[in-house]
Amino acid sequence: MPAPVLNASAQMLCPHGGMVQIIPSNTRFMVGGAPALVQTDTYVVAGCVFTVGLKPQPCVQVRWLMGAARLKVNGTPVLTQTSIGLCISADMIPAGPPNIIFAGQTHLTAD
After folding, report:
1. CB under 8 Å to 76, separation ≥6 — which residues?
2. Can you name the residues that pair with 21 across neighbouring β-strands?
3. pLDDT score at 1
4. Across the 111 residues of the chain, what is the mean pLDDT of every consecutive 10-residue run?
5. 3-110: which CATH number, 3.30.420, 3.40.1000, 2.60.200, 3.40.50?
6. In DSSP terms, which residues pair with 23 in a beta bridge?
7. Which of 15, 10, 1 is nearest to 70 (CA)?
């Protein structure tokens, strides 16, 4: 089912409330006045407070496992509101999917 394409104005949180900072690599394909996000962009998490026992295990990045099947930028799938990602700690421990709070735009959709 088509979902809004994410752009660099999107807002995301890790499952523990840490803010995802987006560093887009695409500078040519704009959606809603901002670069469309692709799977291979850099997604850094700041402010995650997750702890296992006494050891802090904060989420530090998001890895996207699945983007849009049909819409690509330079051969890389764009991300949509329904894309599947995983927040990961510095020890490479998966911590759950990111929460997409705002897609950044609502006019262009993809599946």
Report:
1. 38, 39, 40, 67
2. 44
3. 82
4. 95 98 95 97 98 94 96 96 97 96 94 90
5. 2.60.200
6. 42
7. 1
Given the structure tokens 């819409």, which residue do they identify? 71
Structure tokens at 15: 């499952």
Burial of 65 (0-12, 13-18, 19+ CB in 10 A): exposed
Claim: this prediction has a pTM higher than 0.90: yes
User: Token digits for 100?
Assistant: 């997409």
| Beta-ladder partners of 15 | none
Q: Rounded to an integer, what distance in angstroms lies between the CA atom of residue 30 and that of residue 85? A: 22
3 state SS of 78: strand
CB–CB of 12/99 below 8 Å?
yes
Secondary structure of the chain: what % helix, strand, coil (to 5)? 0, 50, 50
Q: Where are the domains of the chain?
A: 3-110
